[in-house]
């Protein structure tokens, strides 16, 4: 029986000794994220007892000692291989996986690093979407919050106190998330804030993400459906009319319920959502006498307004009119 266990252990050791178990190696500045990754991996392998010390070494004369020694060496190698060369040299001579873990913790862990917590809190408040995909913005916030939780674990014991504190933290993070959203999501932000009780950050993200996806679909959809009716202003001579291009005067029956103008809907109304940079620049150039307005382009009052912060609408999508 002992030989069988030894054979299995040796096989595992040979295949796993050189594994890199964390996405980033410990370099002395990333202890919190490194330790979390290591903890998850080793627990998943069923070997955390070697790190925690619960799996004590049997007597050397015991038949099980060889198995313990091999498994300990395997876990120890996981830890050392997840460090940079300079950091690994500090802990290489230690005897057990527990010794390595304890030494790393004592060297790099600070139970409550006020300066680090301050920096993380400032970072959470300063994080903004700034035109990035919503998922990327949300991911940055989640990473910051997880770092804060690691450095400031909840130590309350009363169930009511724990629930109250969890609610307070959830609301703070909801405010952080909503405050950093781009302006084109103002409406859904207001909808979230009017809910009672306030939703969790994850629930709020789902609502905001659904609205962001809807806006993307609405802005892209009309261009695909009406591709025969759109053209860049530079593609045709100024005197070419819609009738010569085969565009029917009666084809487009859309009417905006916001500005009451024709040939667009409320979802793409410039007046409601904001004028893009290219449109503002075009009007300024016209005032200065630079590049007159082509006769076949829509006047200002009937051009749909699109939120520039969400989707820039290039001049290639100007709607042709008779």
Automatic annotation (TrEMBL):
Residues 17-59 form the Retrotransposon Copia-like N-terminal domain. Residues 298-315 have a biased composition (Polar residues). Residues 286-316 are annotated as: Disordered. InterPro entries: Copia-like_N. Pfam families: Retrotran_gag_3. It comes from the Eukaryota. This is Predicted uncharacterized protein LOC110755101. It comes from Malus domestica. The lineage of its organism: Eukaryota, Viridiplantae, Streptophyta, Embryophyta, Tracheophyta.
């Amino acid at each position: 029986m002992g030989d069988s266990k030894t054979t299995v252990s040796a096989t595992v050791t040979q295949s796993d000794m050189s594994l890199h178990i964390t996405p980033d190696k410990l370099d002395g500045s990333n202890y919190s994220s490194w330790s979390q990754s290591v903890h998850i991996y080793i627990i998943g392998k069923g070997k955390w007892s070697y790190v925690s010390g619960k799996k004590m070494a049997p007597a050397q004369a015991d038949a099980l000692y060889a198995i313990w020694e091999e498994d300990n060496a395997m876990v120890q190698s996981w830890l050392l291989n997840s460090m940079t060369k300079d950091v690994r040299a500090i802990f290489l001579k230690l005897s057990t996986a527990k010794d390595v873990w304890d030494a790393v913790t004592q060297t790099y862990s600070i139970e409550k690093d006020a300066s680090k917590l301050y920096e993380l809190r400032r970072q959470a408040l300063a994080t903004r979407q700034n035109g990035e995909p919503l998922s990327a913005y949300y991911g940055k916030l989640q990473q910051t919050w997880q770092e804060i939780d690691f450095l400031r674990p909840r130590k309350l014991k009363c169930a009511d106190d724990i629930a109250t504190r969890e609610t307070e933290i959830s609301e703070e993070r909801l405010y952080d998330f909503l405050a950093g959203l781009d302006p084109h999501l103002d409406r859904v932000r207001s909808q979230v804030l009017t809910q009672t009780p306030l939703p969790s950050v994850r629930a709020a993200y789902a609502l905001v993400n659904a609205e962001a996806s809807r806006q993307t679909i609405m802005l892209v959809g009309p261009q695909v459906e009406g591709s025969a009716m759109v053209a860049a202003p530079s593609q045709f001579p100024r005197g070419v009319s819609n009738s010569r291009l085969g565009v029917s005067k009666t084809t487009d029956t859309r009417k905006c319920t916001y500005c009451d103008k024709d040939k667009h809907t409320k979802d793409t109304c410039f007046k409601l959502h904001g004028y893009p940079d290219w449109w503002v620049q075009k009007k300024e150039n016209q005032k200065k006498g630079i590049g007159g307005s082509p006769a076949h382009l829509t006047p200002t009052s009937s051009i749909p307004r699109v939120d520039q912060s969400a989707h820039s609408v290039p001049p290639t999508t100007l709607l042709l009119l008779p």
